[in-house]
Write a structure and sequence with these properties.
With 636 residues, the protein is an alpha+beta fold. The chain has 3 domains: 287 residues, Rossmann fold; 127 residues, Immunoglobulin-like, CATH 2.60.40; 141 residues, Immunoglobulin-like. Helix 2 packs across helix 8, helix 5 crosses helix 9 and helix 6 runs parallel beside helix 7. The relative contact order is 0.10.
Length: 636
């Protein structure tokens, strides 16, 4: 029965086919004149426009690669018809092939041999080499810096640009890109003897922090155009139970976008087979994979670890760049790429395994992360940050205010209700983050057309130990390519014990004076100024604090004097001296906060100084001063 049904279906299909043949022979069917009006000279089979269109985002992808022969020599004469590109297994049409090989055919540097110096490249395209010191894995720190310094003495030719990065608790830019080799040597000598770097705690359970640091490094390097070569002085990664496949893939795709390849070096040098970190396949597997998937080369099994720099230097002086169009770009998604050579045998091609096209939103986030990690490269007058010590919290910690001010220029256009992201950080000099602040900020529009946006100031109360710190703030800029950032060094002194001491004076504003209202409206009894200036007639307060911690007996403060003087030293405002008693007894902590109002209306525009002195019957407990500027009153 099933066969009969099948025969009937085949018969019907055959009959329909024979009926259609005469119709096809007669030509296309012409519709009635009142159905479709065709202009004279137009084609009758023109498709009807139904208002639908497909948008295809076409992007040019650039991939840097290196070609070596059997001897490891560079190949300088490759042509576009000798290479083909595959993306996810599909062949792509090559749009361009550029070669940058001023050294021509050059031998691969080998340990223990004196190679010929490389020629100086054209000034317009100097090789950019980034020296990265990975404190998570680096062995023999002092010897590593000595070897790198020797490599610089042997291989530099004056045409390079170097950057020095320390990879630890954070990414710290030790030296920005510079062609001054002496500055790089001085930086390496300083890092070699810096205990805040080599003596820090780098213990960890997984390698995720390391991959995050390398990812942020690429984010930072993306701010420089052109190729960069990263020489990573590192060591074996710990077996943490994870494959880290997503991390490797992301770094590979990002390396193509950033145009940066990684040349890792095992700073442990020669290792014995009994070493658990030894690999007979050629060095630590994690570092070798990092090199293979970013288009770099691995250096291991040699005590001449400066050889990695020599390889990176040679390779960066003979590089190809192939371009092709991705006609259906998938933003923020890694795609596998393969480069193959035709005709020539014995040639080896080295390239990254993935590429990625970043969306605009991903680029903005990348820049924001980079600015938070290295704010000195994004300095702007539109943002200011500072750390103000207000009073002791205990015998070991201070109460302090982290202050951030946003002061945008007059031509800034602020879309209505648009949120900006703000991040403020307090770090130790070794990069350890002590405090981090994140906020979403809506900046108010100017009151008058053409006027600058109002100044926005934010404060955060923190507790901080004595030490040296770096204070930074980063503000996202949704409509610009670069975020706004500010940095400032801060030194927090130790807390004196047993005797009174003075803090300040400092200038600012006291939002409220009533205690109950203060508790309801503000966490702070005083908000310091970041720019130390005020308009004539504006409200300006000062705060001077006298404290005592763990005294043996009560302390009598005989006089706390304050005075405003002009830049020439003439007295302009005098405040009545204050006397008070600070309680005694072990574990006691007491402070006197003295607020004063500066009469700015009586001060002419110019520079002034506020001086303060705290005295007991036996000695001067402390003295200080702060300079400030009075500006012309703003026109109404």
């Amino acid at each position: 029965m099933r066969e009969d049904a099948t025969s009937r279906v085949v018969g019907i299909a055959t009959a329909l086919l024979f009926l259609a043949v005469p119709l096809l022979a007669q030509g296309p069917v012409v519709p009635a004149p009142d159905a479709v009006t065709v202009a004279q000279g137009a084609e009758s089979d023109r498709p009807i426009d139904v208002g639908l269109a497909e948008e295809v985002d076409v992007r040019l992808v650039l991939v840097d690669f290196l070609v070596l022969d059997r001897r490891g020599h560079t190949v300088p004469d490759l042509t576009s018809d000798e290479i083909f590109v595959l993306v996810d297994g599909r062949k792509q049409e090559i749009a361009s092939l550029d070669v940058d090989c001023p050294i021509g055919e050059a031998a691969d540097p080998l340990p223990g041999r004196k190679s010929e110096p490389l020629p100086v490249p054209p000034a317009a395209r100097p090789p950019r080499i980034v020296l990265v010191f990975d404190y998570f894995h680096m062995d023999n720190t002092a010897e590593t810096f000595d070897n790198v310094t020797q490599a610089l003495d042997k291989w530099t030719n004056g045409g390079e640009e170097h950057m020095v990065i320390s990879l630890g608790q954070v990414i710290r830019v030790e030296a920005p890109f510079t062609s001054d080799v002496d500055e790089i040597r001085w930086t390496l000598a300083r890092m070699r003897n810096d205990p805040e770097l080599y003596a820090a705690n780098y213990s960890r359970l997984t390698e995720r922090r390391f991959f995050q640091r390398v990812h942020t490094l690429f984010d930072l390097l993306e701010t420089w155009e052109g190729r960069k070569t990263v020489v990573l002085f590192s060591g074996p990664l710990i077996p943490d139970g994870f494959t880290h496949d997503p991390e490797y893939r992301a770094l590979s795709g990002l390396s193509t976008t950033v145009r940066a390849s990684i040349y890792p070096v095992d700073t442990g040098g020669l290792r014995t087979p009994s070493d658990p970190r030894y690999s007979p396949l050629g060095g630590p597997l994690g570092l070798r994979r990092l090199a293979n998937e970013t288009g770099g080369r691995m250096t291991d099994g040699t005590n001449e670890i400066g050889l990695a720099y020599a390889k990176a230097h040679r390779d960066s002086s003979c590089t190809y760049t192939v371009g092709f169009y991705d006609r259906r770009a998938r933003f923020d998604d890694e795609r596998r790429i393969s480069l193959r050579l035709k005709k020539r045998r014995g040639r080896r091609i080295i390239y990254p395994e993935f590429y990625m096209i970043r969306s605009e939103e991903a680029k903005r986030k990348s820049l924001f992360r980079s600015a938070a990690m290295a704010p000195q490269f994004f300095e702007s007058s539109g943002v200011a940050a500072d750390l103000f010590v207000m009073s002791p919290h205990s015998s070991e910690r201070w109460k302090a205010l982290l202050a951030v001010e946003v002061r945008l220029p007059p031509d800034t256009v602020l879309p209505e209700d648009e949120e900006w992201e703000l991040r403020a950080l307090i770090r130790k000099t070794n990069g350890t983050v002590v405090r981090s602040l994140r906020r979403r900020v809506t900046l108010p529009a100017p009151e008058l057309p053409g006027a600058p946006p109002p100044v926005v100031t934010m404060f955060e109360e923190i507790r901080v130990r004595p030490g040296k710190y770096l204070v930074s703030a980063v503000l996202s800029n949704p409509d610009a390519e670069s975020p706004l950032a500010a940095t400032r060094s801060a030194v927090v002194s130790s807390i004196p014990l047993g005797k009174p001491f003075m803090i300040g004076p400092m200038l600012g504003n006291r939002p409220v004076t009533d205690g109950a209202t203060q508790a309801a409206r503000s966490l702070h009894a005083f908000e310091p100024l970041l720019d130390q200036e005020a308009s004539r007639g504006a409200t300006l307060d000062s705060l001077t604090v006298v404290c005592v911690v763990d005294p043996d007996h009560p302390v009598e403060l005989s006089a706390l004097g304050r005075e405003v003087v002009s830049w020439e030293g003439d007295a302009r405002q005098h405040f009545d001296p204050v006397t008070t008693t600070l309680a005694g007894g072990r574990t006691a902590l007491e402070c006197h906060h003295q607020f004063d109002r500066v009469e700015t209306a009586r001060l002419n525009p110019g520079r002034y100084e506020l001086n303060a002195t705290a005295e007991t019957e036996d000695y001067v407990a402390g003295s200080g001063s702060v300079e400030f500027t009075i500006l012309e009153a703003a026109a109404k």
